[in-house]
Design a protein that fits this description.
Length: 159
């Protein structure tokens, strides 16, 4: 959802760089996970404010500049159970990663290993025998079957 960019002031506040289109999205959560993988620590958000394109936040237990500095560069995430369910025909990127991309001819192109945000539209990164970059738009992406683990794409093997 974002990352801690730097300490902010001397009382333990941190400057946060949100990853979402809506920088205020992190303001909706009472607690954050800070870190990555097994090294995540849960923090309660004591206070949070807009700060231009960033946010500044005070986390419970982070009470001075040194403690805030120690968090610099750490990723911020929230529990999946805290996220609202996506609307119809909307998906969380994490739900798409791992799906098998199959083109309209029934040929398996590979697995979705990631997504890229390009500004104009998102792009699926599909890795199989070769890598395919498939625009995540209705013209190229058809049925998404999360339960079945597949995503239909209008994309050739040699594109």
């Amino acid at each position: 959802m974002g990352r801690i960019a730097a300490p902010f002031g001397v009382k333990g506040w941190v400057k946060v760089q949100p990853y979402s289109e809506d920088p205020d999205a992190l303001m909706d959560f009472a607690s954050w996970r800070v870190g990555s993988g097994a090294q995540q620590v849960q923090y309660t958000v004591e206070a949070i404010q807009d700060h231009g394109n960033a946010l500044v936040a005070k986390l419970v237990g982070i009470d001075d500049r040194d403690a805030a500095y120690a968090l610099r560069g750490q990723e911020i995430s929230v529990a999946r159970s805290d996220l609202p369910p996506p609307d119809e025909n909307e998906f969380y990127w994490s739900d798409l990663i791992g799906l098998v991309a199959v083109n309209r001819e029934g040929v398996e192109l590979g697995k979705v290993t990631g997504l890229l945000e390009t500004g104009a539209h998102d792009v699926l990164v599909v890795k199989g025998q070769r890598e395919h970059l498939v625009p995540f738009v209705a013209a190229f992406v058809g049925k998404i079957d999360l339960a079945g683990g597949t995503i239909e794409v209008d994309w050739g093997e040699d594109w």
